[in-house]
Amino acid sequence: MGQQERSLDACKHYTNTRDVPWDIQKYYHQRYDLFSKYDEGILMTDSAWYGVTPEPVANKVAQHISAAAPASKTVLIDCFAGVGGNTIAFARSGRWKRVYAIEKDEAIVHCGRHNSRLYGVEQMISWFHGDCSKILKNELAPLGPYSVIFASPPWGGPGYRTEPVFDLKTMQPYSLGQLLECFRQLTQDIVLFLPRTSDLNQLAREVDPSKKKVQAIHYCMEGASKAMCVYFGLFGVP
Predict the structure, then answer these.
(1) Is the pTM of this model over 0.85?
(2) In Å, what is the CA distance from 220 to each residue of 56, 68, 141, 160, 199?
(3) How far apart are CA 58 and CA 36, in angstroms?
(4) Which residue in 232, 221, 168 sits closest to 55, CA to CA?
(5) How many Å apart are CA 54 and CA 49, to the nearest integer?
(6) What averages of pLDDT result for each successive group of 10 residues across the chain (238 residues)?
(7) How many beta carbons lie within 10 A of that of residue 193, not counting itself?
(8) What whole-number distance in Å separates Cα of residue 34 and Cα of residue 154?
(9) 3-state SS assignment for residue 148
(10) Which of 46, 143, 150, 195 is at a distance of 20 to 30 A from 17, taking alpha carbons?
(11) Pairing mode of beta strands 224-232, 190-194
């Protein structure tokens, strides 16, 4: 079996709880929160279940970024696109001339493309397979002046919930500082999607005192915070 065939084999659509690995069954029971069109054939890898933004949260984030971004910004770059939860919401918002989605896992790229097709926005998204830092530098650098960068970096799996305050230096493969250093080479208008318990002191140290204050917004479902978005740059009030 070739590499591409192995990648496609990792893309799955579960229809029966008995077939779902035990460690993702919790997320499977929430599948309609993750994708309202799940039954139409949504594809995910087993690892992708941990990192999908629930669709209502993704839609609200997309709405806020669309409303608050400077008018001169016409493209959005999703640096850790996964199977398309946030990427699809950005494309559906109608705000952007183009959405660029970067994902390092080939199987997950295939899932994301497929899922965007189910939501009717495949033609609005350009997918890149590879490391986001390299693709930003080698492929997308000319778009910097017109771009907003959105990033929902890997948090380290569900284990992050055990920490009362999440240390943003421990994110892998990129820490908070490494991400911002990379992104700021293209644009100052950056939105980070982070754990709800992220260390605000670490975020504050990344703010230039001579520039506009950074906004941090919690996004909730059923009265509970799911995550926090931090808005760096010239965003208005969402």
Answers:
(1) yes
(2) 9, 19, 34, 18, 18
(3) 12
(4) 221
(5) 10
(6) 63 97 96 98 96 96 96 97 98 98 96 98 98 97 97 74 79 88 96 92 83 86 90 85
(7) 22
(8) 17
(9) strand
(10) 195
(11) antiparallel
